[in-house]
């Protein structure tokens, strides 16, 4: 395949799977995949996992401190409202699936408390009488915007040490990492978790 044709084909493939594709992100994705080595590097993987874990802990700490300004809002409530912000109406079970760390009983309990607080509303799904559709109320939307604005201000403090180029690199790399595993788990959570558990058991010597 001629280089130009190869490049155009690669761009079309990239654009089909990235809604906001741009030249910069395409070049990064193309070069990183082209130069990707198959040889695993356990030490680098461990370091990455530690740094990502530490970053997640820092973000959670910053957000918890911010929530002290809005005591009527819980962290998980915000995450669920953030999920609902991308959907006009969605089934309860789907919300729990999107928040991957939630077990069904825990997720239902959180949603019920949000209903009681007036942040979301629910109705019977016309397509399936056993299911419930939920969406944020006006109060929920207002609370979400208030907390989201506060979080954006607080989180920006965490990333002041990084320039735009460094942030773009992280966004592209972490996006590739999370999207691959996230989609796999959302599509079939039970099977994905079973495969991960089996892999872990077989890896223990």
CATH class of the domain at 74-158: Mainly Alpha
Please state the second-level CATH architecture of the domain at 74-158: Orthogonal Bundle
User: Which term fits the overall shape?
Assistant: globular
Helix content estimate: 55-70%
How confident overall, as mean pLDDT? 79
Q: What separation lies between the terminal Cα atoms?
A: 46 Å
What fold name stands as the CATH topology of the domain at 74-158? Arc Repressor Mutant, subunit A
Order of helices and strands: HHHHEHHEEHHH
The total count of helices amounts to: 9
Annotation keywords:
Arc Repressor Mutant, subunit A, mainly alpha, 205 residues, single chain, 3 strands
Account of the 3D structure:
With 205 residues, the chain is mainly alpha-helical. Strands 1-3-2 form a 3-stranded antiparallel sheet. The chain is built from 9 helices and 3 strands. α3 (42-67) crosses α7, α5 packs across α6 and α8 (164-187) packs across α9. A hairpin with a 2-residue loop joins β2 (120-125) and β3 (128-136). It has helices spanning 3-17, 23-34, 42-67, 75-84, 92-98, 104-116, 138-158, 164-187, 189-203; strands spanning 90-91, 120-125, 128-136.
Question: Could you provide a short overview of the structure?
Answer:
This protein has 205 residues and is mainly α.
Secondary structure elements and their pairing?
Layout: H1 3-17, H2 23-34, H3 42-67, H4 75-84, E1 90-91, H5 92-98, H6 104-116, E2 120-125, E3 128-136, H7 138-158, H8 164-187, H9 189-203
Antiparallel strand pairs: 1-3, 2-3
Helix pairs in contact: 3-7, 5-6, 8-9
């Amino acid at each position: 395949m001629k280089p130009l044709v190869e490049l155009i084909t690669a761009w079309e493939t990239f654009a089909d799977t990235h809604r906001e594709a741009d030249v910069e992100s395409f070049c990064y994705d193309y070069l990183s995949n082209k130069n990707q080595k198959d040889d695993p590097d356990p030490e680098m993987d461990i370091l990455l996992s530690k740094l990502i874990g530490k970053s997640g802990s820092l973000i959670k700490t910053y957000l918890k401190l911010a929530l002290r300004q809005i005591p009527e809002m819980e962290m998980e409530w915000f995450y669920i409202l953030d999920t609902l912000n991308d959907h006009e109406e969605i089934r309860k079970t789907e919300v729990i699936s999107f928040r991957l760390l939630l077990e069904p009983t825990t997720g239902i309990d959180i949603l019920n408390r949000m209903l009681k607080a007036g942040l979301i509303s629910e109705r019977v799904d016309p397509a399936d009488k056993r299911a419930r559709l939920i969406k944020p109320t006006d109060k929920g939307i207002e609370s979400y915007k208030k907390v989201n604005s506060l979080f954006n201000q607080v989180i920006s403090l965490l990333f002041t040490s990084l320039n735009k180029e460094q942030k773009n690199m992280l966004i592209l790399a972490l996006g590739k990492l999370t999207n691959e595993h996230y989609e796999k788990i959302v599509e079939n959570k039970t099977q994905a978790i079973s495969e991960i558990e089996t892999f872990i058991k077989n890896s223990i010597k």
